[in-house]
Write a structure and sequence with these properties.
single chain, 302 residues, alpha/beta, Rossmann fold, eight-stranded mixed sheet, 10 helices, 8 strands
Length: 302
């Protein structure tokens, strides 16, 4: 049956590979790409059904506008029924001082709040069975095995602190920016757990970890040396067990979205299999606290 899958982060890297895989392997899927620029034209080849809604994920007003447009297109019958949401977009800054138009720190906005707001605004238009997938990161473990010494582990604080700039020591440094990233990915897992408790039966929500994938656009805000290393040096690590190619990570993401990889709601998929996330990532108190804060932060303006 024809259905719609809404996807962020589909224009490059593992998201682009996953989008192409979804369209090739699921001909009945209409892929609705949410991005700043239209990447739908590049994906819509060979009779594939792709459309586009513009949004700046760093702006909650823009996210709300995009979700409202998607709801209207579903209600008008312009789009087939919604069967999935893929929150694959993510950012990492070289500091913890980048503030978005809503007054929130930008890493937290894109990696946490934008996904939460999309799910909340679209969930009453998603009939079961359906699957929501949020791309996370094994940097949330905070150990050498998962972070390879390149990204500091998460530094959890009150969500009211994490949502604002300057939440970490030496906030103008790259280390603080990377700490904001790993902490935001821990927060994303917390919200996956909380959404799994609250969503209706049959609407599954899953966290997907692609592993370390060199050569993606994640380092686009880094300094020139780091960008060069990500593009030219670190891809050689994909020959080892410590890194994953874009092609492999994208295929694994498509497997999760399409249900080829079996994973119950609230679970964590590490590349191609269900696994256990960090011990720190299972904390119902933090999950509830973050949910309440995210509801406040994403509430419509009066």
């Amino acid at each position: 049956m024809k259905h719609t899958i809404v996807m962020t982060g589909a224009s490059r890297g593992i998201g682009r590979v996953a989008a192409e895989q979804i369209l090739r392997r699921s001909p009945e899927a209409h892929l609705l790409v949410v991005s700043r620029g239209s990447s739908a034209a590049r994906l819509a080849t060979g009779g594939r059904t792709v459309s586009y809604v513009p949004a700046d994920l760093g702006s909650l007003r823009s996210v709300r506008s995009a979700a409202t447009e998607i709801r209207a297109r579903l209600d008008d019958g312009e789009l087939p029924p919604l069967r999935g949401f893929v929150g694959n977009a993510g950012v990492q800054y070289t500091n913890a001082l980048t503030e978005g138009p809503d007054g929130f720190e930008s890493t937290f906005t894109v990696n946490v709040l934008a996904n939460h707001l999309f799910i909340r605004l679209l969930q009453d238009r998603i009939p079961a069975p359906a699957r929501i997938v949020i791309t996370v990161s094994d940097t949330h473990f905070g150990d050498l095995r998962h972070n390879l010494g390149m990204v500091p582990g998460p530094d959890w604080k009150s969500p009211d602190v994490l949502a604002r700039t300057g939440a970490f020591p030496r906030p103008d440094t790259t280390a603080a920016g990377r700490t904001a990233y790993s902490t935001s990915k821990l927060a994303a897992i917390y919200l996956v757990h909380e959404h799994a408790r609250r969503l209706p039966a049959g609407i599954d929500v899953v966290a997907y970890n692609p592993g370390f994938v060199p050569g993606t656009g994640l380092a686009r805000n880094a300094d020139p040396v780091s960008r060069f290393a990500m593009r030219r040096v670190l891809p050689a690590m994909t020959l080892t067990p410590f890194a994953t190619t874009r092609g492999t990570a994208g295929r694994h993401l498509a497997d999760v979205v399409l249900g080829t990889t079996r994973a119950p709601t609230g679970s964590y998929v590490d590349r191609g299999r269900e696994a256990r996330s960090s011990e720190e990532s299972y904390d119902p108190r933090r999950e509830g606290e973050l949910w309440d804060a995210a509801e406040r932060f994403t509430a419509p303006p009066p």
